[in-house]
Amino acid sequence: MTESAQLAPESLDSRPTDRPRHRMLENDRASQALGIEVLTADPGHARISMEIREDMTNGFDIAHGGMLFALADTCFAMACNHPSLDEGTITVASGVDINFLKPALLGETITAEATEVASTGRSGVYDVRITRGDDLLGVFRGRSRTIASPGKK
């Protein structure tokens, strides 16, 4: 799946069904507010993008690092969790590291791509690359842990 699906604050149920979807994002108000667009949603792999808006910039007129982190973290979560299956568990971050290499600027569209590096039992490791075209802006490594879904024992 490589076609885009724009997440907007309005109902996600009105999105075309032929576009990539991920069950985790159905109620993800933070991703909706950031305007994250799903490009790919597959088990162990995800690719998303967002445009840097004025309200995402810091006092230096570059994207706030937290915005790049939020994009990478969302992509990581999508790769960790199956896009459609709900087996009574969720996979969450147990720890992450991020390295910012270059700034993102107002009006630019940046992309995050997450790939599973290793998974054993309830633990996993995922790498996320944050890019602007061919330009590498940051690298994120996430460590995951699978737990019972809240409200399910």
Short description:
The chain is mainly beta and 153 residues long. It is built from two helices and seven strands; from the N terminus they run βαββαββββ. A hairpin with a 2-residue loop joins strand 2 and strand 3.
Average pLDDT score: 87
* Low-confidence region ranges: 1-16
- The Rg value, from CA coordinates, equals 15 Å
CATH homologous superfamily designation: Hotdog Thioesterase
Q: What level of helicity do the residues show?
A: 10-25%
Give the SSE string: EHEEHEEEE
Strand order of the largest sheet: 1-2-3-5-6-7-4
Give the amount of beta strand, in percent.
35-45%
The CATH class designation is Alpha Beta
Shape: globular
Number of helices: 2
Q: What is the CATH architecture descriptor?
A: Roll
Q: What's the CATH topology label?
A: Thiol Ester Dehydrase, Chain A
Number of domains: 1
Structural class, by secondary structure, is mainly beta
Total strand count, please?
Answer: 7
Biased composition (Basic and acidic residues): 12-21
Region (Disordered): 1-21
Family: Belongs to the thioesterase PaaI family.
GO molecular function, one term: acyl-CoA hydrolase activity
